[in-house]
Write a structure and sequence with these properties.
Blueprint lengths: L8 H4 E3 L5 E3 L8 E3 L2 E3 L4 H7 L5 E6 L2 E6 L7 H10 L13 H5 L5
Antiparallel strand pairs: 1-2, 3-4, 5-6
Length: about 110
């Protein structure tokens, strides 16, 4: 969507945790200087509707910045490992290569 283009109303309708839908009209704000950076002030109403945590991720798309909840590192890895195991796709890719330590010093107990 080009900068300054009207946002369709359907894109602004958001279901809430209370079971009803809140429709937010587009809100304008200014980009301001914050030290050597620039920033925006986000109205509380929008933050409440988005239910974002304190840590967010930002990425740029043509004509817009996208703010979304930060994903935790390794999110989904356990489920992916279980799926790999179910498909027997969890074998080592390379043969193990014994080291001098393995051959001379390692002992199984």
């Amino acid at each position: 969507m080009p900068p300054g283009a009207a946002v369709p109303r359907a894109a602004l309708a958001m279901p809430t945790s209370r079971g009803y839908t809140v429709t937010t009209m587009g809100t304008k704000t200014r980009i301001v200087r914050i030290g050597n950076s620039r920033g925006i002030r986000i109205p509380k109403m929008l933050l409440d509707e988005a239910a974002l945590p304190d840590e967010v991720e930002l990425h740029a798309e043509p004509g817009r910045l996208v703010v979304q909840a930060a994903r935790r590192p390794r999110t989904g890895w356990a489920a992916a490992a279980k799926r790999m195991r179910a498909r027997a796709d969890d074998r080592l890719l390379d043969e193990s290569t014994p080291t001098q330590f393995d051959r001379e010093e390692w002992e199984w107990r």
